[in-house]
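User: Could you go from structure to sequence for me? I need the amino acid at each position, not a summary. Structure tokens:
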């Protein structure tokens, strides 16, 4: 098995006896869609309107968290304000508005091929996103209806504690039929998302589609790192051998 060493390390680190995947849980932005550059720009513009300094690097470092959580953290640090959920949601709505003024982002090359292989192998597919943008969530159900049941999509509305807490991925396992951590695979591009997958005890594949070095995802505990979803698709069968 090409990835035997990585799998054995995963089992040892978590104290599990076997690796028997039954579901693959995908993050959305930066994994399924090439959407992070637009998100970064929308975040910068929206935060500036409210007097918060927010860089493109900040958007990648916090990607995967619930948007309202990100806003509340930065408002606390920079403005000394404790925002309510409703106040942060109003700011997030402005970020959403700006994002949807931009051209629609494309599905990454390799995503559909990978999902076909996963389905052919008899595994379920779920999507776990920190997004609360309803148009994006609807797009997921439209674009991937051949592979993903709507009931297997976890969004910001389904959990109280977002990434980097393990809750979103634990919810993904629950929705897939109450599966155990060693029965799942997480596919993530963001440090916070990788941390969430690892904290949930799930074998976590890092897809480094952004500007951060591989070492950032490795430090968060990614079990394997690929430079693109296409490369992961090319090696999918090696992971199951």
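Assistant: Here is the amino acid at each position, in order:
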């Amino acid at each position: 098995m090409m990835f035997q060493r990585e799998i054995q390390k995963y089992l040892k680190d978590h104290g599990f006896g076997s690796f028997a995947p039954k579901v693959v849980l995908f993050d959305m932005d930066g994994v399924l869609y090439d959407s992070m550059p637009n998100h970064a720009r929308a975040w910068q513009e929206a935060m500036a309107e409210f007097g918060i300094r927010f860089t493109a690097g900040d958007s990648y470092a916090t990607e995967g968290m619930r948007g309202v959580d990100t806003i509340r953290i930065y408002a606390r640090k920079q403005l000394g304000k404790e925002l309510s959920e409703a106040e942060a949601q109003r700011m997030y709505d402005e970020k959403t508005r700006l994002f949807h003024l931009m051209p629609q982002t494309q599905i990454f090359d390799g995503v559909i091929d990978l999902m076909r292989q996963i389905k052919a192998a008899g595994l379920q597919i779920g999507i776990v996103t920190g997004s609360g943008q309803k148009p994006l969530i609807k797009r997921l159900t439209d674009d991937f209806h051949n592979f993903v049941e709507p009931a297997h999509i976890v969004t910001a509305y389904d959990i109280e504690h977002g990434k980097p807490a393990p809750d979103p991925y634990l919810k993904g396992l629950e929705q897939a039929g109450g599966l155990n951590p060693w029965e799942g695979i997480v596919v993530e591009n963001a440090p916070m998302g990788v941390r969430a997958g690892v904290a949930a005890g799930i074998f976590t594949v890092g897809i480094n589609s952004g500007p951060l070095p591989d070492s950032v995802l490795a430090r968060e505990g990614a079990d394997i790192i690929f430079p693109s979803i296409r490369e992961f698709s090319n090696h999918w069968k090696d992971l199951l051998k």
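One structural detail worth keeping in mind: The chain is about 50% helix and 10% strand.
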